């Protein structure tokens, strides 16, 4: 029996996928549920499992874009499974027949080395000087290797390093995921009135809390007490204070949400992934850290699903893990705002009339000015700054152990 394997739907609104890589070869015997291919959609890379055991015949090439429901391979389920034993011994090699030796063709006489070898004629030297070409890089065709005027005229000046370094190039096709990310970024720039506002955060209080409680927190909950839980809790609070930031434009209408689904940007093997923390307003510090860890692992191992990356209402991106000091993050449409975190650097600041050294992080909020006014965007970022600089009072209700479930 011949089974026709069709492309399953990876998710709502996805109409085609791209064959990123075949994990088997044409004619191979495959087992049921064995991963036979990786396919790229515009949101994620997914594995395609065999629907039955048998011999496979491929019907699409790597890089082909195929519609959902299209046939990509055939599986002959009546084919017998090959023996798993050792391969048959290879046939003995035929003895090589001794061939009669061929006489070497006479080599052309090499030009003898003389004082003239590699030396340009006066006319050739003038041309080489005008071109900026070193005579040592030109092969002379004149008598005894002298560089002639014609040699100088034909000499090509070096356009790069005189060391003769590599000037190769390579070309590769962008994955469907990368192409979709590019389209969405350009769309966000072209279709939104995007502005960015900045502020700085003194992270001293968070550093003190983490240094005091991180060991106990990890030993009890099995996850680290990182910065994302503080930022997520601060964002949830600010979204509740400024609901326009937790809204989207749909045609001539504005949709506002009474829940906070926070997208977190994660760098994966196939590019940028943006999994979503659902109902972050209901999560504790432990809950946020556990969910961030789970989603990050799934994204980096290529196991993230389309559903896990769909439907966020606000995005947090952390360029600081790569060393970024400051950036203007691009909105993740159809969302209306994105918060950019950056690296934490000890900087001099004014504190109570004196200069102090403190761990400072610059933060940036990019927002769609069509529905978020400047007052709201600045107020939102100030609310985040206040929460992060006074986390015990604002985010933990002055009860650290209860907030951390210690």
Q: Output the number of helix runs.
A: 9
CATH architecture of the largest domain: 2-Layer Sandwich
Give the overall shape, derived from the CA principal axes.
extended
What helical percentage do the residues reach?
25-40%
Structural class: alpha+beta
Tally of individual domains = 3
Unreliable residue stretches: 85-97
Would you tell me the overall average pLDDT?
85
Q: What's the N-to-C terminus distance? A: 61 Å
- CATH superfamily placement of the largest domain: Chloramphenicol acetyltransferase-like domain
Q: In terms of quaternary structure, what is this?
A: single chain
CATH topology of the largest domain: Chloramphenicol Acetyltransferase
Strands, total number: 19
What is the succession of H and E elements?
A: EEEEEEEEHHHEHHEEEEEEHEEEEHHH
Beta-strand residue percentage = 15-25%
Summarize this structure briefly:
With 406 residues, the chain is an alpha+beta fold. The chain contains nine helices and 19 strands. It folds into three domains: 75 residues, Beta Barrel (OB fold (Dihydrolipoamide Acetyltransferase, E2P)); 32 residues, Dihydrolipoamide Transferase (Irregular); 209 residues, Chloramphenicol Acetyltransferase (2-Layer Sandwich).
Secondary-structure map:
Blueprint: E1 2-6, E2 16-22, E3 29-30, E4 35-40, E5 45-49, E6 54-58, E7 65-67, E8 71-76, H1 122-131, H2 149-154, H3 176-191, E9 194-202, H4 204-221, H5 227-241, E10 247-250, E11 253-256, E12 262-264, E13 266-268, E14 271-273, E15 276-277, H6 285-300, E16 314-318, E17 337-341, E18 344-351, E19 354-368, H7 374-389, H8 391-394, H9 400-403
Parallel strand pairs: 12-16, 16-17
Antiparallel strand pairs: 1-8, 2-4, 2-7, 3-6, 4-5, 6-8, 9-19, 10-11, 12-15, 13-14, 17-19, 18-19
